[in-house]
Amino acid sequence: MQAEIIAVGTEILLGQITNTNSTYIAQGLAELGIDSYYQTVVGDNPQRLSAVIEIAAQRNDLVILTGGLGPTKDDLTKQTLAQYLNVALVESPSAMQKITAWFATNGKTMTANNRLQALYPDGAVPLTNHNGMAVGAFYQSVDSADFLLLPGPPRELTMMFDTEAKPKLAAAYGRQAQIYSRVMRFYGISESELVTKLQPLIDGQTKVTIAPYAKTNEVTLRLSAQAVTERVAKTMIDTVDQQIKACVGTFFYGYGDDNSLVTTVIKQMIAAKLSLTAAESLTAGLFQSTIGSVSGVSAIFPGGFVTYANEAKHQLVNVPQAIIDTDGVVSKTTAQAMAMGAKKQLNTAVGVSFTGVAGPGTLEGQVAGTVWIGLAYRNQPVVAHQYHFAGNRQQIRERSVMAGLDLLRHALNADMDLKK
């Protein structure tokens, strides 16, 4: 079962309004197990609308048209469809009664063109508009595609689609196989590298689709399977999920469209009851601001330090002046001393530090993007890792924060593995 959504409206083509209707309908079709491979936007022009209806009807079982059902001169959707179907437009008595009652109640004069809102193609089932006046329609054809007419205003469309259209579509087409999806999230690997590592698995899949998406500082994979029940789809997706983890599991950090690396790490810290602090130089508090966005972080984050100047590193987190004088601030030893100093100052389980060159110039002979991140994790030896990030000043700072979170994630995972 395949459907196409046609959004009618010149204002959509001009970018004056956002086409949220097609998104909403597409989600509803997926819930019904109806495939949707095409979405079209066409202006308020009967010739062009007729042409896209013709194309859509040839390649789909169901064509859904939204917009153009109102009383104005450019509302021509139902008229154009009726002409294509070679049927007349007939009036819905209940819709007409609602329209006349509205004008009477509001003390306004109803003009003749308002009667257009009560019309629908002969042979169709009229759909009640609970939040407006324009009637919708569901037309089932014997030798062509079926058609669904929905109003353009989102408030009217969503109500009609949910309460009127979806039950009729389900009754007309029966139970279809639905598409179920799972999103896997990865950090520390590029989209191209991830796809290269998974290419044999991607090429060998016939039941589960693996779709990569590059996002800011991370990559996601959407695993999709079509099945009659969610249990069957889950079984298929679980198998591929485990195969992916076996290949690139070290970069995997969580699931879901709305998840993030900072949310995952901080929730793990909260669950483990591990307190956290930070000493930040080049990031200037961005790490602390980022973790502060997670609800409940106050349970494990008492505060931290912004140690931008060399004096602040020494005075606030007790970095020995000898280290700064000998190794410089952009160094492994300074990063280690900052992490441990912050941890000791606030008596937390974990201390993280950031020092380096955000740019645009150099510092101590180090180019922009050179970053050291230190980690003092519980009673383990203090470590520090060097990174080289590309980008402008803000991008380097943001990537430093993400790398710090990922360093903390690996430490947490290693800790949990030891306890198993």
- Can you tell me the overall shape? elongated
| Count of separate DSSP helical elements | 14
Taking all residues together, what is the mean pLDDT?
Answer: 95
Q: Strand order across the biggest sheet? A: 2-1-3-8-7-6
Describe this structure in words.
43% of the residues lie in helices and 23% in strands. It is of the alpha/beta class. The strands form four sheets. A six-stranded mixed sheet has the order 2-1-3-8-7-6, sandwiched between helices. Strands 14-13-15-16-17 form a five-stranded mixed sheet, sandwiched between helices. A four-stranded antiparallel sheet has the order 10-11-9-12, with helices on both faces. Strand 16 (370-377) and strand 17 form a beta hairpin. Helix 7 packs across helix 8. The longest helix is centred in the last third of the chain and has 27 residues, at 393-419. The radius of gyration is 30 Å and the shape is elongated. The two termini are 48 Å apart. The mean pLDDT is 95.
Which key phrases capture this entry?
single chain, alpha/beta, 6-stranded mixed sheet, 5-stranded mixed sheet, 14 helices
Outline:
The protein is α/β, with parallel strands linked by helices. It is built from 14 helices and 17 strands.
Provide the fold topology.
Blueprint: E1 2-8, H1 10-13, H2 20-32, E2 35-42, H3 46-59, E3 62-66, H4 77-85, E4 89-91, H5 93-105, E5 119-121, E6 125-127, E7 136-139, E8 146-150, H6 154-173, E9 178-186, H7 191-204, E10 208-215, E11 218-227, H8 230-248, E12 252-255, H9 261-272, E13 276-280, H10 286-291, E14 305-306, H11 310-317, H12 321-327, H13 332-346, E15 350-356, E16 370-377, E17 383-388, H14 393-419
Parallel strand pairs: 1-2, 1-3, 3-8, 13-14, 13-15
Antiparallel strand pairs: 4-5, 6-7, 7-8, 9-11, 9-12, 10-11, 15-16, 16-17
Helix pairs in contact: 2-6, 3-4, 7-8, 9-14
